[in-house]
């Protein structure tokens, strides 16, 4: 394994290092390599296993459901009794919930995390180490019209092509049967999904995944020969930087207000990289996103398709109208394809999670910064797959029917990465302005309540969910602009010292664009000169230790109304 130490990664992951050689050490090390390499998988995607013995009991260590390979710990690999799993190899297939219950019953100890739903495939494949991941190149190859033929030409008998299906017990049994019947097989190519690789050593298992990606890229390159690979060229000219910044400052709060569910908040992540801008401004890129996701993991983060705006939609009114059309289209798709179980619960969320802004970039949303980042990363994968597939002959994804089936599949919805962090303010964004002796206490209390905090003027320790703004309070418009870029907007402004009227005005403009009144909370004797307004409710609290409690109480009260003004 020492030869793997210097393998580069492109996601924030634990640095690969020497391993002790036990199966659990090896699979943990390998999961960091795979999970940290964007060429192999994305956040929360894929799973990893190793087989061994505890005492005299054969064991499968299987990665837990929905864990992020780049950040796994030993606790993410529950130990399962392998012989009990193998009893299901030729048994009558169980339905999803029964399969999950049966797998859980094989746990070596009762206090383990639940293993991934692909556990049975890992158990049935006769190798010590098995990986399943979602490489962009492999997915792209399986998305093009002649992908099956090109995969056969590249991989021959070393790979099995498997058309897309939900991962149930029958899939695990069929894959094991087909691998057993094809002794030279080293890869399973899962159409629109990813790969399985396996080997008797952890290093070779990892190298097999890298090899599959290299060969898929070679096949795509052969298919793309002579094609421009530019998604049809530019349909929209990107805005110059100053114009783009001004328009984003206006539209991000509008989007944040229109994408939120009732009183639940949302955090936005904005990608204005040249690659993102080129994609959303191209002739075919936005159109192809409407054909479905690059990987089924996106169904519970991005959804079946993003909202692709047109240049004419890039106003507050245009954004709201486009989101209204998106909701109507989603309702119609649900009506066309939802099964009886889904209909009993009704649509879970008909709002877009990702919005494409031509000439500007991509905006992704989530209940907190981590979920927004995962959503953004999953759409980046769809973008990558579309670009490669379009250059190689065309992009085909899951059908709408399959998309709805997977989005409402109970096992898909159980992924832990979808869970929001606890806290009464977990979906709120608070802009804290001012450096006083109370700043640390206020920020700590808000953080403990789960709030996402943009801090201007303070010098507190870094915390997850707290962004230290570079703009100085002497430039209040810049403070608000930076907070909007960090989170898409904010719900509360906390003033800890004398607050400039310009800051209040800029914050009120954000609240107006979001379409819901915000809160201005003063901590100290500075609030007597401000009053409730159309877009702002004022709280005066002279005791800083009570600020978080006052905000919690105010934000959990029934709404007093809303506004559609988007000045």
Protein described:
With 567 residues, the protein is an alpha/beta fold. 40% of the residues lie in helices and 14% in strands. The protein contains 20 helices and 17 strands. It has a 7-stranded mixed sheet, sandwiched between helices. It has a 6-stranded parallel sheet with strand order 14-13-12-15-16-17, with helices on both faces. α7 (169-180) links the parallel β5 (159-162) and β6. α5 (136-143) packs across α6 (147-155) and α9 crosses α12. The longest helix is centred in the middle third of the chain and has 23 residues, at 202-224. The model is unreliable at 1-20 and 558-567 (pLDDT under 50).
Descriptors for this entry?
567 residues, alpha/beta, 6-stranded parallel β-sheet, 17 strands, 40% helix, globular, disordered C terminus
Would you kindly provide a brief summary of this structure?
This protein is α/β, with parallel strands linked by helices and 567 residues long.
């Amino acid at each position: 394994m020492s030869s793997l130490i210097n393998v580069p990664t492109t996601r924030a992951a634990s640095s690969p290092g020497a391993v002790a050689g036990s199966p659990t050490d090896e699979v943990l090390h390998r999961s960091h390599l795979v999970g940290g390499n964007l060429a192999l998988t994305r956040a929360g995607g894929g799973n990893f296993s190793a087989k061994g013995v505890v005492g005299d009991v054969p064991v499968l260590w299987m990665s837990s459901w929905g864990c992020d390979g780049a950040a796994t710990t030993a606790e993410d690999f529950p130990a399962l009794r392998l012989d009990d799993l193998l009893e299901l190899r030729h048994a009558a297939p169980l339905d999803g919930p029964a399969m999950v219950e049966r797998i859980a019953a094989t746990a070596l100890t009762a206090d383990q995390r639940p293993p991934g739903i692909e556990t049975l495939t890992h158990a049935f494949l006769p190798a010590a180490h098995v990986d399943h991941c979602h490489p962009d190149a492999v997915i792209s190859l399986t998305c093009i019209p002649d992908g099956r033929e090109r995969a056969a030409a590249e991989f021959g008998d070393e790979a099995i092509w498997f058309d897309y299906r939900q991962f149930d017990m029958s899939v695990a049994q069929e894959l094991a049967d087909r691998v057993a019947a094809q002794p030279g097989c080293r890869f399973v190519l899962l159409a629109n999904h990813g790969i399985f690789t396996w080997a008797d050593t952890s290093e070779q298992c990892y190298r097999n995944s890298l090899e599959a990606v290299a060969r898929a890229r070679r096949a795509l390159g052969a298919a793309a020969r002579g094609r421009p690979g530019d998604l049809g060229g530019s349909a929209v000219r990107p805005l110059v930087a100053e114009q783009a910044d001004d328009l984003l400052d206006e539209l991000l709060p509008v989007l944040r207000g229109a994408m939120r569910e009732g009183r639940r908040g949302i955090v936005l992540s904005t990608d204005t990289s040249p690659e993102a801008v080129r994609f959303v401004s191209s002739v075919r890129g936005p159109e192809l996103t409407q054909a479905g996701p690059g990987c089924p993991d996106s169904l519970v983060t991005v959804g079946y398709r993003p909202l692709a705006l047109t240049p004419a939609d890039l106003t507050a009114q245009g954004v709201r109208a486009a989101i209204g059309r998106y909701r109507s289209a989603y309702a119609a798709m649900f009506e066309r394809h939802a099964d009886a179980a889904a209909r009993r619960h009704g649509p879970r969320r008909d709002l877009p999670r990702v919005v494409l802004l031509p000439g500007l970039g991509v905006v992704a949303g989530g209940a907190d910064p981590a979920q927004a980042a995962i959503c953004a990363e999953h759409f980046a994968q769809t973008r990558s797959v579309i670009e490669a597939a379009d250059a190689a002959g065309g992009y085909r994804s899951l059908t709408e029917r399959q998309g709805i089936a997977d989005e409402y599949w109970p096992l898909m919805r159980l992924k832990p990465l979808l869970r929001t962090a606890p806290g009464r303010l977990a979906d709120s964004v608070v802009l804290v302005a001012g450096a006083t002796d109370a700043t640390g206490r206020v920020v700590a209390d808000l953080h403990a309540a789960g709030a996402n905090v943009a801090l201007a003027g303070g010098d507190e320790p870094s915390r997850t969910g707290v962004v230290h703004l570079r703009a100085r309070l002497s430039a209040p418009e810049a403070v608000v602009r930076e907070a909007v870029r960090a989170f898409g907007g904010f719900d509360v402004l906390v003033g800890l010292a004398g607050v400039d009227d310009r800051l209040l005005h800029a914050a009120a403009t954000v609240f107006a664009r979001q379409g819901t009144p915000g809160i201005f909370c003063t901590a100290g004797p500075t609030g007597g000169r401000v009053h409730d307004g159309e877009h702002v409710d004022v709280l005066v609290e002279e005791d800083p230790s009570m600020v978080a409690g006052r905000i919690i109480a105010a934000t959990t009260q029934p709404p007093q109304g809303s506004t559609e003004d988007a000045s």
